[in-house]
Design a protein that fits this description.
This protein is an alpha/beta fold and 167 residues long. The protein has one domain: Rossmann fold, CATH 3.40.50. The protein is built from six helices and five strands. Strands 2-1-3-4-5 form a five-stranded parallel sheet, sandwiched between helices. Helix 1 links the parallel strand 1 and strand 2. Helix 2 packs parallel to helix 3. 27% of the residues are buried.
């Protein structure tokens, strides 16, 4: 089964480690790549420099408050780039400001999640994101298969482990 490729753009090492830990315990096969700032995120997505061999993500988890290039600017660049704009972007940030929510949706975010400070609540939110985006939602096909005219647009069944139930 092809794993779901996720790019986590997060400068808080503790949050990134927690995200890795939660997704590693998942019954869904997820490969999580992490970058710590907006410049690295764009380089990863455009396969520049040390990211020349990077795999195009199926989903991006994006913090807004990033060093070097703000998450809002990263989101704008993703949604303006024809080769990247179909990748769903989940803004996952500590900001609960209405202005950030409105601006993020205006820039093309697919959803906006405020990170809780409580560990258990954070874990539940990550599991909910996982269940929605990896089990319920039909993600766009990889760029190369969408243009060949032979792909039907499905990602195929997702293995969710024993018991067959979603988390």
């Amino acid at each position: 089964m092809t794993p779901i490729q996720v790019l986590l753009v997060e400068d808080n090492e503790a949050d990134a480690d927690l995200m890795h830990e939660i997704l590693e315990a998942s019954r869904i096969h997820v490969e999580l790549a992490t970058v710590a700032d907006g410049v690295e995120a764009i380089n990863f997505l455009r396969k520049k420099g040390s990211y020349a061999g990077a795999v195009r993500p199926d989903l991006i988890l994006l913090d807004l408050n990033l060093p070097r290039k703000d998450g809002r600017e990263v989101l704008r660049e993703i949604k303006e780039d024809p080769s990247l704009r179909l990748i769903p972007v989940v803004v996952m940030t500590s900001s609960a400001a209405d202005a950030d929510v409105v601006r993020s949706y205006g820039l093309g975010a697919n959803c906006y999640v405020t990170k809780p400070v409580d560990w258990r609540a954070f874990q539940e939110i990550v599991k909910a994101i996982e269940g929605f985006w990896f089990v319920i939602v039909r993600l766009p096909p990889p760029e190369d298969s969408a243009s060949d005219g032979e792909h039907d647009g499905t990602r195929g069944p997702i293995s969710i482990g024993q018991g067959g139930a979603a988390p």
